[in-house]
Description:
Layout: E1 5-7, E2 14-16, H1 21-32, E3 38-49, E4 67-68, E5 91-101, E6 107-119, E7 125-129, E8 133-138, E9 148-154, E10 196-203, E11 206-219, E12 224-241, E13 245-260, H2 262-265, E14 272-286, H3 303-310, E15 319-335, E16 343-359, E17 362-371, H4 373-376, E18 394-396, E19 398-409, E20 414-424, E21 426-430, E22 448-454, E23 457-460, E24 476-486, E25 491-501, E26 506-510, E27 516-520, E28 524-535
Antiparallel strand pairs: 1-2, 3-4, 3-5, 3-28, 5-6, 6-7, 6-8, 8-9, 9-10, 10-11, 11-12, 12-13, 13-14, 14-15, 15-16, 16-17, 17-19, 18-21, 19-20, 20-24, 21-22, 22-23, 24-25, 25-28, 26-27
Amino acid sequence: MGTPFFDDGRCGRKTDVRAVKPLLLAMCVSSAAWAGDFIDTRVTFAFAHDNLFVRPGETTPNSPGVGFGASRQNTQFFDNFNTRFSGFETLSNLTLYKKAFSFFEGFEGEAALSVLLLTQPNGQITLFDNSSYIKLNYKPLGWGSREDISLTGFPISSDRFRLGFNWRVTWGGDSAFTFQQGSGLSATGRPSASPGGKLQVTKDWGYAFVGLKTGLLLNNLLNVQERVYGYLGGAGIDLYKGETSAIRFEVNGGYFNRGIAPSLALQGVRAPINALGGSGRLSFQRGAEIQQSIDIRLYKNDPDVLARFFRPETYPGGFSITAELEGSVLAQTLIDPDRFAATRPQLAGSLALNTRVKIDFWRINLLGLMRTLSFIQFDVPGFPPFFDFSKGSTVNPETWFALGVDRYFPKLHSTFGVIGGVQMPASLTAPRFDFGGNAPPPGLTGPRVVVVRDVNLFNILPATDANGNPVTVLPIVSIKGTYRLDLSEYFAIIGEVFYTRDDNRVTFRDSTANISQPTFEQPNQLGFNAVMQARF
């Protein structure tokens, strides 16, 4: 047999394997310390029912009955406060990551091609860029191990580069620009990606950054696409930093050009839609780490980073707490519905509280949220799109709070918990109803109360209740019991039973005159989720 060789990729030259056996062994050992290229993988198998009290066809959205699979209908308003996902998805992130030292002292480069692989109920798999990036780091002489100056470029999507902190109240992602104006929505219904760049200085005591995003929107006056811009900036400083506790204050903000109002452009009027605002957070931690949403952190197949993504919950004993209070004030120009061919500013705001306490094997979580209707619809923008609320409208914000408690039993590797909350959904009562089309049916004329549950997710309430009284928006009460059995660090069995009382649920049914009318549906919801999930 001849001497074994392999191609080392250098102009086709051959290298004797025997000469590089120690190098190959070192490479194998090194690669074993790195995670696989498929990271943040979640395989979820669910057997669930979103409402045992109803049959298929009785509700909107429809409740198909008990079976395999679950969706956002199986979640409550206090779930997923700090993530974009429902928790029932099967998905993975393919991240091809490379980090290398530069030929120049103090510099190093890193890059990641990050792709979100998301399975669909019909069996198809969709792929999205998950904020792939290229990053140049520079560490001046004498700076600490965690201090540097970095320039990050997002060549496709900069959605993970956002303003705000807790996911439910973040803004300035890919949807920062309006996407109703032609070619803005992809075939999957997601907002088109917006590239961007970020320059950041990180020191032991805090950080500061500036950034730029660009998008393409249709100019309805010229009927061509034009580039629009978003400018971002922010900073954070540790007001106090001890061995086991810290207080940090952070602030960021931005200004975005969102094109022109399409309906006024069709009348020959150029009306720019511009948005700006700022967010701030004051956070306190003792014995626990202040973390940002996993949907904001950049992916890299670095074992130290992944250990933080997937490490099991630890209970070292004693007392620890993380408390965050976050607020945002935004504004944008929208069409004035009370004046012809005019615009006016619309204010928006949010306030969020996220507190996590751990006492030995007990955990307590207190959540609170306030979002104005204009904040919920900020990226649409407006309600209806591109319009401010008309004069005489009564606009109420979304407000809710929730309290959860659970306890871990180490010998059983089991966690039992309960969480409950009360929500007052956002609502709009307008003197003129604009949601029934050009020729609305009799059931959709006159003043109406519209309940807005999330972005473009709303219910039109009937004009009167069963007793002929004017309808009002009523609070929603929800409670959920949970059980989790950890079979390993990456595999768990989860059981949930939930009950919700929502007197604002509406569906459409035909009247005796064969006219579709909004009708109140069953207000009680009782459901369950039985889930097996592996995450690695």
